[in-house]
Each structure stands twice: as C-alpha cells, then as structure tokens.
Amino acid sequence: MDVGDGERPFDVASDSCGQLGVHLSTDEDCEGDGPGQETFNDDEPALPPDLAWLEDLYEEDDDDGDGNGDVDQNPSVVADNGEKRSYAATARMFKLRRNLDQLDCFHRQKEHDVLKAREELNLCRQNIDGLVKQREDLENEIKRQKAAENSVAVFRLRSQHKHLCQRLQSEEELEGHINTDLKQQEVELSEVAVELGRFSSLRQEVQEEEQVFRVLKAQKAATRIQQERKAGQNMQLKMLRLRDKQAAMLMKEVNDRQKNIEAGQASRKMAAKHLKETIKRMHQKEAEKEQQNRELLEKRIQAVKSLKSNIAATQESLRIQQRKAKANAQKKEQQQRQLRESLQAQGINSIKHMYQQKQLEEIKQKQEEFAERQKSKRVEIAAKILEEEQLVNRRKRRQAVLHKPSTTDSFPSLGRAREKLLHYLDPSPPSATKEKATIQLREVSESSSSSSASSDAEDPEETMYQEGGHQSLTESLAEPEFSGLWDQNSKKLQDEKAMSVQTEVKHEQPAISSGKLNVVVQKVHGKELRRPPFLSKPEIIIFKDFEVGKMYKKKIVLTNNSYITNHCKLLGVSTHLKDFISINFEPPGSLSAGMSCEMQAVFQPMINEDLEGEVQFASAMGPFSVPVRCTIKKCDLEVDSQFIDFGLHVVGQTISRTVTLTNKGALATHFSLDTAACLSPESSHVQVPTQISANTCQEISSENTTSENQRSSASTGTGELQPQQDSQELSEVLQQEQSVSEPSATGPEAVLESCVSTNVDARMDHSEGGDISLGNVREGHIGPFESIKLEVVFTPTIPGEAELDFHIKFSDISSKPIPIQVRAVAVSIPVWVVQPSIDLKICMFDHLYQDSIMVQSRAKTALKLTFDVCREMRKHMEILPKTGFIQAQSSFNAQLKFLPRCSLSKDAKKFFDSDTGVLEVPMTVQVAGQVKPVHFTVQAVVTSSDLQFDRTEVDFGCCSIYQTVISSVRLTNLSLLPQDFGFLRPPEFIEVQPNDGFGTLLPQETLEIDLIFCARKAKEYSFQLSCKSGINRDFHLSCQAVVVSPPLELSHSLVQFGATAVGDHSTTIISLINRETNHNQSKQPIDPQTKDAMTLVAPRLFSFLPPKDSDISIAPSAGTLLPGERCLVQVTFRPRLLDQEIKEEALRLFHRAKLLREKELERNTHTEKEEVPVETSKGKKVSVVPNNSKVSDGPKTEQLTEPLNPADIQPGSVQYKDARASLLYSFTQRYREYTVPCFVSDRILPEDQQEQPAWSPFNTLDLQLQCPAVQPALVVISNNGLNTIDFHQVAVGEKVIKRLTVQNISKESLDLRSSVLDVHGVFSLLNALRCIRPGDKHTLVLAFSPCLEEKYCETLEVRSQKMTLRMTLRGAGVVPAVTCSHPGGVLDFGYVLEKESITQVFKLQNSSAVAVGFRVQLASLSPTRPQGGADRVAFLLGSNTGSRVQPTVGTQNYSGLSVFSVVPVEGSIAPEQSQDITVTFQPDHPSVNYSDRLTIELSNKSKVCMMDLKGAASSHNMYLYGGDLLTVPVESLLPPQIASQPQLAESEVTERPTIPVLVTLRAKCNAGSITPAVRELQVGCIRSTQLSKKSGEFFWDNVASLQQQGFSVEPGKGTVEAGHKRTITVKWTPYSGYKPYDVVQTCVPVTLKGDETNVYRVTLIALVSTTAV
Questions:
Q1: Whole-number Cα distances in Å, 779 to 637, 659, 775, 791
Q2: Are the C-beta atoms of residues 1402 and 1382 closer than 8 Å to each other?
Q3: Cα–Cα distance for residue pair 321/327, rounded to 1 Å
Q4: Would you say the C-alpha torsion 1081, 1084, 1087, 1088 has a positive or negative sign?
Q5: Is 0.90 surpassed by the pTM of this model?
Q6: How far is residue 478's CA from residue 396's CA, in Å, rounded to a whole number?
Q7: What is the pLDDT of residues 788-823, one digit of tens each?
Q8: Bridge partners of 15?
Q9: Engineering a disulfide at 1634: which of 410, 1014, 1312, 1630 sits with its beta carbon 3.0 to 4.6 angstroms away?
C-alpha cells in the first residue's frame, strides 16, 4: 500500500458490524498529510469533549508546580523526559491510546467475523453432503420402485427428488456466497494485522508515556495528601484554641452562676425567715381564734346537752303524767261505773246524782282558782307599790346625790345584791356558771310546780328580797364622780329608810354574818334595849392568812353586857368547822353585869379554803354566837391612781408619768400589762378615782369627762331594768322548754356587753396609737406587802387627742384586773408639708421623674425653709430650690427631681430594698427658729427596664440540612411595668415564634420563645439575634449551629396516615437514598485522623428505632446502603388496644357490675315478701316463703365482692374479652404522633468489616409520623376477639373446620369481600360473604387440610368500604406415625373345631403428637369386592388352577356371617397412646380354605399394615396336613348337600371313607450323585373345652413295605397333646436297582385317634430329577 497516494495510512469501515473508521497517524505521516488530515501539535487550540478533563488536570499541575520544590521526582523519569511534559504531549498520548484501543477492538472484531464465516461455510457443506446422500438414496429407491412397477411410488419419489435438487442448488449457491465473504473477511483481517504491525513502535512509545504519567500523578497525589495533612493540623490547633476559649468562658459563666445562686439562697433564707415569722404569727392568731371558737362551741354544746336532758326529762315527766292521768281516768271511770251500779242497785237515779257531784266539783274548782287569782293580785299590788317607792327614791337621788358608803357591811341587802350581780356577771369558770344557772332554773321550775299554799307564803318575801337587791344594785351603780357636802346629812336618812323598808317586809330577820352578835330585845324600866347578852372581844374570831398544817390559837374574852346576872354555856361550833376548830372553855358560872370570862380557840387547818361559822353559846337571856372567820393568804392589789392625764404637749416632746402598784395581801403574784384586753365584768364596778390630776381643768378633758358621765349614767339606767327582764325571760324559756341559747344571749353576759361596749368601742382606736406607750416594766413579780412603780410615756407625733386604756392582769385567779385610763393632747408645729408622703409610683432606672412639694405655714411671720436631701440620695434626687422663704399663713412649692441610677442599690442600701425594689427616703425641711424639722417621705418602686434571656448563648448543636431544630428560650421582663419587644431582622434560616417574635410582656412575666432553625447549606453558623424593647433598648442573643449533610436521605420526612380503624393497618413506602459518590463526599466535620481513610466511599449502615409499644412497624428496620443505592422502606401503622388499657377497662367494668349487683340485691331485699305464718292442723306455725322470692346468688356475690387484681386478668379470659369488646364499641378516635430516628453509621472500611461500626449523631435522620385511629366497622366477636385462627396440629390428609363470627358495629351496611386464598393451598373458605346491615353478624367457615408435614400460615382479608379486617390462618401438618405390633403378611389361626372360635390381638401404637383416626377393613366385607363369587369364577377359570396360590377371600360360613371379625372396626388413637385390635376366627363347617385379607387404613387413606388371615376348621380334634394340593382352594359355587345321612353302626366304622393325601418326593441327581428327597407332614390335636379326651395318637400302617421301596417315616407312631403339633418326616432314598426316570408309587394308611378315629390314605410318589431343588 503506497503512502504517498494522498490517502490515509489506514482507513477501514465495516458497515455490517456497525464499527466506525479508525485513523492513526505518526509524526512522520503528518509531514506528508494533506490539509484535511489531523495532526498533533503543541499549539493545538482545542480538545475533543471527552478529553476536556485534562485542562483541569494541568491547571492543578501548574498550581502545584510552584510549591512542590521539596517533592523528590523520579530521576529516571526526569532523565527520560529531559524537560517538563507539555499539555499537548499528554493530550496526544491519551488520543493515541484511544485510537490504539479502537484498532485492537477492530482487529478482534474481524477475527470474530472470519471465524463465524468459516463455521457457516462448514455447516453449509455438511448440509450439501447430506442432501447429496439423500438424493442418491432417493435415486436408488426410484430404481427399485420402477423395477417393482410401482408407478405411484415412482411419481411420489420423483417429486421428492425434484424438491431435493432445488434445495441442493440453493445450498451450493449459499456456499459460494459464504466462500466469497470469507475471503473478503480474511483480506480485511490481514490488512488490519499489517496496520497493527506498522504501529507497534508507536504502541511501545505510548506505553512508556503512560508509565511516566502514572509516576507524575502519584507524586501529585502524595503532595496533595501532605498539604491536606498540614491543613488538618492547622484546623486542629484552631479547634483546640477555640475549645480552650469556650472552656474559659464556661468557667466564668459557672462562677457567675454560682455567685447568683449563693445570693439567691441568701435572699431565700432571709425571705424564709420572715415568712416563718409571719406564718408563726398567723398560726398563733388562728390558734387563738380556734380556741375561742372551740370554747364557744363547747358552751353551745353544753347548752344543747342540757337542753336535750331537760327536754328528755320533761318528755319523761309528761309521759308519766299522761300515764297517771290515763290511769286516773280509767280508775275514775271504773269508780263511776261501780257507783252507778251501786246506785242503780239501791234504786237511786244515778245520772242525777252524778250530775250533782260534777256541779259541786266545778264550783269548788272555781273557788280555788279565785283564791289563787286573789293571791297573785296581792303580789302584783305589792310589787307595784315597791316599784313606785323605788321611783320616788330614784327621783330624790337625782335631785341630791347621796354619799357613798365606805363599805357594804352596813347594808346587808346591798351586799347580797352586789354578790348576786357579781355572780351573774362572773364569766369564769364557764362550766360552773352554767351549772349554777341550770340549778337555779331547775329550782325555779320546781318552785313553780309546788303547792299553791307554799307559793302564797313565799312569793311576797322573795319579791321583796329581789326588789331590795335591785335597789341596792341601782344604788351601787349610781355612784357620784365627786363627793359633796350633802353626803354627811343624807347618810342617816338613807339608813333609816333602809331599815324601815326591811322592817315592813320582814318582821323576823335571822342573824346575818355581818360581824355582830345576835341582838336580844331587853326591857329595862319599860324601855327596849337591842344588844347581845355577852360582848365578845374581839367581836369576830379571825384567823387571817393561815397555812395548812400549822396550828393557831386565839384568846377571846366574853363580857356580860346585860343588866342582870347571867351565865353562858358552850353549845359548840358550826358543823363544818368541827374538824378544824376546837374551843377550850370552862363555864364560869353566874356572872354579874360587867364581869367577863375567857376561852381559847384552837385552829388547825387541813384544807386551803376560806371558812366561816360561829361559836354558839346559851345564856339566861337567850342564845348568842360569836362569828368565826378563817381566811387564806390572798392578794390585795390596788393602784394609787386609775386615771392619768398628761395635758397639752407639743409634737416631738417626751413626758412620763408613774403609777404605783401596791400589794396589801400576804400572797405574791405575777403581773402583766395588757393593752389589748377588753374590760372584764369585774372591772365594771371599779371605784371612781378620788385623786384627779390638776391638768383636767382644760376644755378638752372637761368635754371628755362630760361625755363619760353621760355614758355611765346611760349604762346605769340600762342596768336597773336589765335583771328583771332577764329573770322574766329565763322563766318564760323554762316554762316553754325552749333552747338555752336565748337566755345565754340575753343573760348577764349580755348585760355586761351592753354596759361596757360603748366605752370599749370608743377607746379601741385610741389605744392602738403609738403616742402613748408603756415603760420598760411591763411584767414582773410583786411580793406580799410590796409596791412597784409603772411608767407611762407620752411622745406625741401626730397632733390631736391620744388615749390609752390598759389593764394590769395578775396570775392569781382571785385577783381582778385593774383598768387604767391614760389621756393626752398633742399640738402640731406651725409649718408642715401638705403631702407628707410623696409617692412616685413605679419608676425605671435612668429615667427622670418630677413632682412638686407643697409646704404650708400657719405662722404669722415669714420663715426660712431649707430642703435637705440625704447624702446617699444626692446622686439620684434633687429638690429645687434648696432654700426659700414661706410667707405668713401661705404656701411654698418646691420641685422634686428623681433620676435613679443603676448604682442606687450601692449608694442607698438602707433606703432601697434591692429584692423588692421599694425606695423609701425620709426627707427633712429645716425651718428657722423651729427646733423640730418637718419630715416627709418620698416613696417609689424602682424597677429595671431589662429583658433577660434565661441563657446567653443558644447552641442548636449539629443538625442536618433536612432537619428543623427548635430551641426554646425564656424571655423574662424584670421590670414591674409592661414592655413591648420584637426581634428585628432575623436571618432567613431562623424563625421566631410566637407572633413572629413580637409581643408585650407583663410585669415579671416570662414568655417561652421558640427559635426554629432550618438551614439548607452545610456549614458552621454563628449569628446574633437582636431583641429590641419598647424604650429602644437592644438585647442580644448569641446563636451557633453546625449544619451537616447526612450521607443518607429520606424521600419523605413527614408521613400522614389516613384514618385507620383499630385492627386494620395502613402502609406507605418511602425511599432511603445514599447519595454519596467518589466525587461527592459528605461535608460533615470529621477528624483529621480519619480523613485519609475516608477518601474511599464505603457503604453505610442504617437502623430505624420505632418507639416501644407503639403501633408502628418498619421493614426493613436495618440494613446497608452502598453509595448511590436506594432502599425502599415500608412503614406500617397498625392501631391496636394496649393490654394496660384493656385491664383498666376490665377493672372499671368489674366495679360497675359490683355496684349494679349491690343495687339489685338492695332492690330484691326491699321487694321480697315476708314469710307468712300458716297454722297447721296440729296447731304448729309453719313459715311459708312466697313463690316470687329469689334465692340469693351466694357464689356470684362472693365473686363480685372479691377485689380484682389487674395482674390476674390474662388474655383470653372472660374479663379480658368483655373489656376489649367494650373498648372497641366505645372507641371514638385517637391521634398520635411519633418521631422515629434513623441512625446512620460512619463509613465501613474494608479492613474494619469485623469491628462494630461507629454511629454518629450527626448522621441521624428523623421520620415524623402522624397516626389517626378510628373505630373499626367490623369486629370479631368469636375466638375471644382474636384475629388469629390457629388450627394447631392436624394429621396430614385430614380436614378441620373452624368458624369465625364478625359483626358490623358501624351505622352503615357493609358489603363484604374476601381476598383470594391460595388455590393449591391448605386453607379454604367454604362459604360466601354477603352484605351485612348495622348490628348484623356473619360467620365465616374456614377449613384446613394439610398435605405435607410442615407449618402453614396464610392471611385472609375481609374487605369492606371502610376497613379491611385481616385474619391470620395458622396450622401445622403432622404425618401420623402409627405402627402395628404385627409385622404383616400371614396371620394363621391354625386348626379349630367347627362352630368354635379363637382370637388373636395385636396393637396399634400412635407415636405422633396428634390424635389419629383409623379404620379396619376386611376384604370379604369390602363394598368393591365382586358379589356372587365372581372372583372365585375368575380364579377357577384362570391359569393358576394347578398352582398353590390361594385367593384373597377363601371359604366363608354357610350362615352368611363373616368367618373373621374385628373389634373395633374404627376409632381414634390419642397421642402417645395405643389401641388393641382383636381378630376372631369362628368357622361353622370344616374346611382348610378359610382366608381373608385385613387392611388397617388411617383417616388420610394411608395404610398402616396389610395381613392375610388364614384358618382351617375340622370336625375332629386330630388332623393331618401337608403334602400336595389335590383340589382348588375355592369351594364349589353349588350349595352344599345338607341331606341327612343315616348313622353308621359300630361295625361299619372301618368302612368309613379315607382322606387322600399325596406326597411327591423328588431326589436330586447331580454329577452322578443322588441326594435323597425329604418331605414333612404335620399331625396336630385341637384344644377344646367340649371334648373329654385332651390328647390323641397316630400310627403308620405297613411301614415295612415302605422301607423296601426306599421310604422311611419317622416317627411311625406317637401321641399329640391338645394344642400341640408333631412333625412326621418322610424320606426317600433310591434303592439299588432303581432305574432312572422310573416313578416309585405306594399307598400307606395313617390312622389318627382322637375323639374319633380317622384314616388318611397317604400316597407316596418318588422320582429322580435333575431340576429338583
């Protein structure tokens, strides 16, 4: 081929193979190429598209060339190249390599084409040879047919020959065409081989250039790796520095937090301390209040109890009176009846007589009522007269104030009235007071029910006594405040009037214990002298301040005070004094007037109580007595003044007064000053102070005194009428049997409250002031006969009147509190601030607030004012002007400026509370010429304007680009004012909620703000969020996050399932994609150590972790994804009911059933009829239970009352089933959301396949699932509500049927459809589905029929419009393993007497785990067996007539019953159990051909075993069998001859026919030697209970003749026991002279003797045979 022809060196195109042309050119060829040829030059402008990546490669090479001087290059490479490779040379190398590869591929294609053409040519030649051979054969056939003159065949063969020639011609043409193509292909192949030889040098050059290129590339890779390592080290150092900085900041933050915590703990401790104190005070107040309520409640309870007892007593008395009245009425009626009868018997008119008696009784009753009215009228008249006298006396006292007596001893009636009033007013002890009041009320009721005569005599006296008591009470209460001169004159008049009143009321008054002897009226010279007969000195025997256990003696002198000679005699002492006082007295005899005698009184106290009595004497003038009074140690306390008046004082001064407390008694006590106590009942009768301060002459004090006098007089007037009203109310309540709460409310305590309430209410406000205070001594101990000074201080701070009422209380119960009143008046200063407390409300730091201060002056001259601000507040507060002048009786205004700084808490610690923010600054105004400055207060609540985040930095952590991270921060308004806020200009990848970051915070409110971070680029984020408040303050929040691109990606991160019914399931499929490739690595931050290993892309492991006990299942839940792979993940939502919910519902149903049962029992108890007593004929009563009465269900009640434990409720129980059904029927809807994490591992390198992969939290993906569940439309109401139908283990071949019932619980009709079960499977649905209406049920019939020994499971879906109910069908096929104890084959029963039976037993053993059914079949009873003996005909007509083969079914009984019978015929064998099969053989006539076939078949049609039954029957007990078969084994089809035969005589026994037996003996001849022939016969004896002879015997006749012919028989005779057999051996040895092929025959009789004698005619045939066995 010429290169200079202008053509390319090689340009080949193969259109048939579809290959493009290949062009290669060298540098030498390029010199002579035309303009259209391609050349490789260094300055070639462009590259083909597939080599464009070389530009990037050489750009990197240029960049790395400057900084890679330290990298050692391969010296050989440098030596070979000599200079740096250019871009064009590298491109030329790659282009040559591509062309050479194309040329090699073209060469291989041509070789393939040549080989293919050669194969086609060989195949075509083989076809031609075959056709030629067929043509020759066909021509030869034509010749033969022509010779045979078969024209038809000739024509047919000629047409075939013609067709064959055409085919041969076409094959030859094809052979030439293929041969031409083959030559062309070989030419082209040789041309390509020539071209390959031309470019061998160019190929070698390209290989060298490639090796150099690979070396350069390895050097560049090493350089790049080193640079990356340096960059990684730099990054690691940077991260370490950043970590140290973060640690320092974290430590600083921890320290600050610890300081804040300590400060908070300190403040909390202080607050807790104050709180405890406050709570303690509150508890104390509550306890006091509760104690008061308890006491009041106890009082009321006692009153109610007494009322109940009174009511009960009254009711009982009423009942007694009613009974008495009824008895009296009955008695009276009986008396009247008797009287009437007696009068009628006497002939007197009884009606007239009784009427007259009734009239007389009425008249007498009217007279008594009239007398009683007269007496009551007289009492009322006397009461009115006394009341009028009291009114007259009261009017007189109003006109002239009477002098108050010093003591009450001169007026006994007044003392009794006072004591009675104190008894009413004494509140302690309450129980004793109530008991006394109850006793008095009972006494009054008893006195009212007494006789009229005694009431007439005592009522006037008691009335006078009460009036006297009220009068004395009135006089004691109407005490004048000041003593006057008229007291001396009015004293005598008052005594005389009192005595006259007493004389008129009582003519005889007993001696009173007032300290005087009994007065005896003496008449001397016609004058009556009232004095005692003897005068005692001392007049009263007083033992004062005694102590128990000591002895006291006193001497008494008795002087005859009469005018006559008198004597005295000691009668004794009072009864209650006999144990303590003894009198030593010697009677002096007669004593003249003025003479005296002595006696000694000895007192030895045993109890610590006051005692009073008298020593009684008798004299000639009459009896007299000397009073005795014994008193214990007591406290006698008094103060020098009960009223203190400080007078007028200016505000700011301090004045003190003292009060002297004196104890005149011999008993020490503890005292305390109480300013909060109310006036006690005892203190309402305190004496009016006799000394009054000189300061009371002022106007204010006089007004107070006047008002007090008016209040005291008003209270006195009220107290006069109150006791009468109380007594009347008490009597009315007693008579009407009303509650005792009314008298307790209006009794003496109410009198006390009405008396002192006005004064107490008027003074409570003043006593709570702080101007008047008590001194340091507020409590202490005062001994006997000691004095203590108490100080009262008056410090006026507010102008006006000040009052203080306090009491001196004592620990001694008998000592009454002493009230003290303090009065004072304060006068204000001339200059004051109009608003003494300036409230600036709530202020913020660094904000200016202003207010005005107004100063008022009442002075008559101008005054200079100076406003003083304390040093601590001068930075924050200012008053302008600081100095000014206020004119006379005018005002002055100043300006207050308040600008609180943040340093306020440090500058003014004592004025500012940093915890509460309260600022209270005392300010002063100095007034010239005024000692006390004017004070006012500036108050404010200073608060911060800060908005505080609960943290300074928000770290979103590491998240993926597919995730949205929500972090919550708490924004707190530290101010006490509401503030607006807003997050301005947040980045686009973050969202602030709620309300897009805008809102208003109330004071001290904390709002939780959600920061939603969602970035779509993988990098590190660090930014700040700016929150601006309403006052233009900025608060910054630093945020940071690391966003990574996970190696795996979910196609959907949110799955929203549709409404799924409970029991149904919803499925969705999502994709999990691994988008990693060799050039697209994950951008997540990695460690430098693993960066080198991560250059290779490795597979990733993933794992889904659904929540525990959830309704979610994911498949596959774990796996491996290679780069670029996609995995389909199936997510299934199966709503179900949890076991805990079902158990709780079961408990609820149990309690509900228990309540219903209890209600039903109560209803039955109420409605049950009582037993009706029926009297029988014998007089006995029998209780009859009504028919409708129900018997109580004891066990059910006990079962319901037993507590139910949730752990006892097991799945499948009745409670569990009912609870599950209840939940399904009441189920409405349920919505749940799940977040399922998908963990993704780091890369798995090939060398780390055996190690556990590392899981990075940065790779985790989240799958959000929204799962709504609704009520199912179909529920399973059978099978305990389970959707799984378990057929358990079933034998292979059997069929088990189960039923499942479903119910429609929806409100719509459902059209049911089912899925298609496997047609060739083991499960089947036997009935069709239909449409069921709401509430209807439908039963599905399912069958399971296994065919193999394996487990089966299949799902059946019952579909409807609303849901799909899936049911799981399970079952296991088990091959029944049943074995038979009999191995099979022949079961021979032997010989048996006719019409007797014999049995044999064998066992069937079931070794499988399921019960197996079996059936025993006999061939004689088989329905498929031919009837009428057809099988016997076939057997007889067959070819086995002379053989020993016996048919399956042999001889049968004549009676039609089966010869063989089996028990049982069929049944079932339990697992691991066995079954006995009994076979009975019972023939009815003699025969040796009884036979049958027994087959045991299982329920799956498999056969366990098959055995042939064989037996023989004989009419005698001895038998012989063996030998050759003489007849067929089937009896004749004709019926047997049943004609009776005549009995044979004994002489004809020998003529009985013999039984033939044939025995053939064949001796074997082998190589000239003859082996004797041996045969065996069996002789047996049948065991039978009917025969008397149990054994038999046999013997052979003519044995000697047998031996002559070579036969020998052993044994020749013998006996056979019943049930046994003996073997007879017959042997034949050819005798001498025997000729071959001769047959020796002889006949020998054998006699058997048993129950009968039988003869067998045995024919022996012997011969020699070469084929004998």
A1: 15, 14, 10, 12
A2: yes
A3: 10
A4: positive
A5: no
A6: 13
A7: 998 999 888 888 888 888 888 998 888 889 999 999
A8: none
A9: 1630
